[in-house]
Amino acid sequence: MLFTPYVLLGIVFATIGLFVAFMGLDAMRRGRLGKNRTLIVSGLILAALGIVLGIT
User: How confident is the model over 4-56, as pLDDT tens digits?
Assistant: First the structure.
């Protein structure tokens, strides 16, 4: 597999997106006030963007 800059950037975006989504889930589980849903949605969007970048 050839690692182009888009593939590497996709891996980075997907990894960061998953961590952000898990931070939102953890904050929601602990019952802390804040923008938990925003963290989860933005993390999933970053992960989807990373997958799209990695595929193209």
Answer: 888 889 999 999 999 999 999 998 988 877 788 898 999 999 999 999 988 87
Cα distance from N-terminal residue to C-terminal residue, the chain = 13
For the four alpha carbons of 39, 41, 47 and 53, in that order, the dihedral sign comes to negative
For residues 54 and 43, give the distance between their C-alpha atoms in angstroms, rounded to a whole number: 16
Q: Which two tokens stand for residue 49?
A: 């963007």
- The span from the CA of 25 to the CA of 2, in Å, is 34
Q: Give yes or no for a contact between 53 and 46, defined as CB atoms under 8 angstroms apart.
A: no
What does the alpha-carbon distance between residue 31 and residue 48 come to, in Å, rounded to a whole number? Answer: 26
